[in-house]
Design goal:
Chains A, B: Pfam families: Ion_trans. The structure is a homodimer. Chain A has 4 domains: about 120 residues, no CATH class; about 120 residues, Helix Hairpins, CATH 1.10.287; about 130 residues, Up-down Bundle (Four Helix Bundle (Hemerythrin (Met), subunit A)), CATH 1.20.120; about 120 residues, no CATH class. The first copy, chain A, is mainly alpha-helical. The interface between A and B is large, with 80 and 79 residues.
Chain lengths: ~650, ~650
């Protein structure tokens, strides 16, 4: 498969080896062509600029939903169409670039090229839509549903694709548990119909209770998510407490046992497939490193083993990571060549990809800049006492007490001038703390990349200072207080309080763990975004303007039923849920989040009462995604 | 530590060894005295009869709550007191027996003897209560809270104690996450107060929205359980959709991240401590087997290793498990003595406890009794054809279709004579199936201990037959239909449908797994029973008769507010929740289940509006026990 070259003193070879190493380091899985032109194209392909550009245009493409009908901020159709065309152009360029990099036969087999279909379909849809709107016909932008697929299938969405694959692989087993679960719901519903249907019970609003089989199935299905507990059982309970046994048994079996079974099946499968994926990744990484070795290998003596010399290795590492320091590179070499021979074999070479991924923190004990500027003053007795005071535990405790006092002051009414002036005192104290710390600690290490809390503190305090100054300037000039700036000031003030967490070791550990699982949550966040986006697009096309929100002051009689006569007298209208609609992409997203949080989702669904099919989609959507997220968070959190 | 005896031909020694083996087999951990009297007392102590008696009296003691004030079925105070005295007497006898079995110094150090304190406290309480009621003073039976402790601390509740220990050990770590979680809730509440408090927003019922800090904390705490989503955010959402960001962030951090962190911490700790407990159990088991070996050991030749002969081993096994068959015992011996030497060493002896726990199923291929009675008929061509037909796959499929048809018929209106007569057809078909199977398969293996579904089928079909006959007899005699019998008939009819599950292999696997985790769930069921019982007792003393339920037909104006003026106009009264009260032990349990299921729990808690402290207990109770149960079910289900 790879070229055996004994005379390898060409620059291209180093490039090739560097690409193999860098692919291994970042777990890229692209079977690129090894011809010199393809290699240099591939280098360009992996450059950060085109990658960021693609992500940017995906974002632009997806955020077009904000400006298209039904819009949050309406823009003319030709404007959004033009922007979308531009996005499609960028994606096409990227794809053409990709096609040039990898061999032709590989390109056509690559499942990532669902992108091509998406782009073509979007173009067709845009043409049809343009033609229809030009002739004033009803037109539908159905291809908007395809947009999130770009996010999944673009070459960079590797992690997302992996998550998707894991879910897809778990589906068959989930399906069997789901069937059994549905069977159980149906049997329980039949029993409820027979036991309660003929008793002439009435629900709270006077309608007959448990007389229609399909309604019972729906009610009991909702009960699984506990959203209508205990209302659904109150009529039966009022008749006799024996019937509660039925409901308790139902909740026990379906909510606790079956939902846990879902969780267990998803968790087990996810773990199994993830393990398999990781194993494949490790194998691919090794394979790539072996190829890189084959490019650079040479034979020191006749019949001896193949090795890579230190000089070549250095040149390679310099190509792979240009920003690495000499000291760091020498450290890595000494780890590989532990016998100090000046060359390394295949086994030592292969671990380079992992070594490059290890973060090395260079700790330089630099003297404080003030010490170099005026040493006598900085090293004088009062200055050293100050340093000792600031480094003392008492200093931290004192500031914790100040923060707590500040919390109390924030909670009090800020109309009181004493309270509002105290804010200046607290701001001064916080600034003083930062200045003192800067005096004591070396500024560059204080603001190093890893001191999350120092950065957090300084940014919050400085922005609070700026916002407070702007606010009081506005006030003293025009007697006018901007609500927005005040809001920002309040948020910043409250955020300052979070700092207390850092001074308690146990809490810091928990917070750090939570921060560390951030990337994993982010991947699933993208996944959920994809699902939400698709549902929002479908929902908007189906339900836009079906439910209207009327302002507080509006006197329109339609306000009582959200502008839709079908909703007259429903719980949805009574609970004042009119704003939960699909009238624009923002409302749709918020509505979908509410459905995910589950409670009252059945009331929200009443707005779709006539459209059973979508309800079904939503139901299964909720069922499938709830446990997933749990699992995800659980998996990530067990690190603690 | 143990007696070295070279002349061991005493019966007492066999008893001692048998006790050690049986203790190891059932994981009992009692440091009993090794004197002959104590050993025979210990044998009696472990006999099934006294153990069952103790459990029976614990049940009687706990079920006294049904008859005591506030009672479901009122009994005079002297009657319940007498029964309780009897129970206490039984427990005391059991404890005295226990004290005789184990060495005096061990007895006083045993933490299980919390029982003694419980008994003494209960006696004191009963005396005080008796005296107070005799003088017509207000009296409180506070010692009822202690009753479930007997269930935990009785020597038999080993598994329950282990579960309790695991939870107790996990508490410190949970506590830190809980603190951080509460900190996050408080910070978010402060931010909500500052952002939304001054905007003059109104909730649905016109009261000011988010102006009181403590109310915000409570509302946001409820939001963590998703019980008041999305109502709590609707006023803010109606004002501006920016505020939903605040709520979405809050739900993400507190409901998803922190609740998952709780789950992870509890899961991890539970697993860790359970592993430790199991390790200790295994060590203790080995230790006991070594002791048993030491009692029976003898030296075959001078300087040779210590062994146990087959004769002694046989006598031991006969003592430990009298009901074991000779074939089974010989099988076990041949496993231990795999070299067929006639004696075994320590290593082979130690595994006896585990071997005895292995269930051996004896498969005897007996001919069908009909074959022995009239072989010509049974082996004739038509009879054999019948056998082949019944064993064919088509027979099962045919009956699955019949069951599905039956499901449809059950769902239809049974007033229709055609439908109600069809029931006889189905009953006949089901009976025919059982009879045919009995004709084909050997009855004793058909009704063997492990054929769960055969037993299930037969019992359901036969009882449905009996109930249907009684029902139609009653109907034809007096034209009168008993509602109770009809209910039973309906339940049995629907239960018959479950059988379909057995014929699909995948479903059978899932169901079998669920059945296998039954014992683990039972242990946690006991644990939850203990917690519920304590809360029910406390709740009944505090809230009995505070909320009254009025019959459907009652015209009392107090019906609108459940007989408590404090509840006028609350959601609790509006939703007709009057039956959710603490007026007797049954209602209390149902109420606690509802609280566990979470939804609307904040409305139910309104009934305790004035009693903040208990609310607090409940809240923490819910927080602690929700994840626990999840964990439990999860742990058990991951076997799938």
């Amino acid at each position: 498969q790879w070229r055996e070259n004994s005379s390898w003193d060409v620059d291209g070879d180093f490039d090739l080896a560097a690409i193999y190493v860098s692919d291994a380091q970042y777990n890229r899985n692209i079977y690129f062509d090894t011809s010199p032109q393809a290699v240099s194209l591939y280098l360009l392909y992996n450059h950060w600029l085109p990658r960021v550009l693609v992500y940017f245009f995906i974002l632009v493409d997806m955020s077009l939903a904000v400006f298209e009908e039904p819009a949050v901020l309406p823009l003319p159709t030709w404007a959004t169409m033009l922007v979308e065309l531009l996005c499609l152009l960028v994606f096409t360029v990227r794809l053409v670039h990709y096609a040039k990099v990898i061999p032709r036969d590989k390109f056509w087999k690559d499942p990532k090229n669902i992108c091509i279909i998406c782009i073509v379909l979007t173009l067709i849809d845009m043409i049809i839509y343009g033609a229809l709107t030009a002739t004033n016909c009803y037109a539908l932008r159905w291809s908007r549903v395809l947009r999130p697929l770009l996010l999944v299938n673009v070459t960079e969405g590797r992690q997302l694709r992996r998550a998707f694959r894991s879910i897809r692989n778990a589906l068959p087993e989930i399906f069997y548990v789901f069937l059994l679960f549905m069977f159980s719901v149906l049997i329980f519903s039949l029993m409820a119909l027979k036991l309660l249907g003929k008793r002439g019970l009435k629900t709270m609003d006077g309608s007959p209770y448990f007389t229609n089989y399909l309604e019972i199935v729906f009610d009991l299905y909702v009960l699984v998510t506990t959203a209508n507990s205990p209302d659904v059982m109150m009529p039966a309970y009022n008749a006799s407490f024996i019937f509660t046994l039925f409901f308790i048994l139902y909740i026990f079996i379906n909510t606790y046992i079956f939902m846990s079974a879902f969780l267990a099946v998803v968790f087990n499968n996810y773990k199994k497939y993830l393990k398999e994926e990781v194993r494949q990744l490790v194998r691919a990484k090794r394979h790539k490193m072996v190829r890189a070795f084959a490019v650079l290998q040479e034979r020191r003596e006749e019949g001896g083993e193949l090795v890579v010399t230190q000089a070549n290795w250095n040149q390679l590492v310099r190509l792979v990571q240009p920003d690495i320091s000499n000291a760091h590179r020498e450290l890595l070499w000494s780890v590989c060549d532990d016998k100090n021979q000046g060359f390394i074999g295949k086994l030592a070479f292969v671990q380079l990809a992992d070594l490059l991924n290890i973060e090395v923190i260079t700790l330089k004990s630099r003297p404080h800049p003030l010490q170099s500027i005026c040493p006598t003053l900085y090293l004088s007795a009062p200055s050293r006492l100050l340093c000792r005071l600031v480094q003392h535990r008492g200093f931290t405790i004192m500031y914790d007490v100040i923060i707590l006092a500040n919390a109390v002051f924030i909670g009090l009414d800020e109309e009181n001038p004493m309270i509002s002036n105290s804010e200046w005192v607290f701001l001064f104290l916080y600034l003083l703390e930062i200045l003192l710390k800067l005096y004591v600690f070396e500024p560059r290490s204080f603001f190093s990349k890893h001191s999350f809390w120092n950065w957090f503190d300084t940014i919050i305090v400085v922005s609070a200072l700026i916002a407070t100054i702007i606010n009081s300037a506005l006030k003293s000039v025009g007697g006018y207080t901007s609500r927005q700036i005040l809001d920002i000031v309040f948020i910043l003030r409250v955020l300052r309080l979070i700092r207390v967490v850092d001074s308690i070791g146990r809490f810091r550990t928990i917070i750090n763990t939570l921060i560390r699982i951030g990337p994993a949550i982010l991947t699933f966040g993208q996944l959920i975004l994809v699902v939400y986006y698709i549902f929002a697009m479908v929902g908007m096309e189906l339900f836009k303007e079906k439910v209207k929100f009327y302002d507080e002051d509006s006197n329109d009689p339609a306000k009582a039923y959200c502008g839709n006569p079908l909703l007259k007298g429903t719980t949805f209208a009574q609970l004042n849920y009119c704003k939960n609609n699909f009238n624009n992409v923002m409302s749709s997203f918020i509505l979908l989040v509410e459905l995910t949080v589950v409670n009252q989702w059945h009331d929200i669904l009443h707005l779709n009462a006539s459209l059973c099919s979508l309800t079904q989609i939503k139901l299964s959507y909720i069922v499938k995604h709830r446990p997933l997220k749990l699992i995800k968070s659980f998996k990530s959190l067990k690190v603690i």
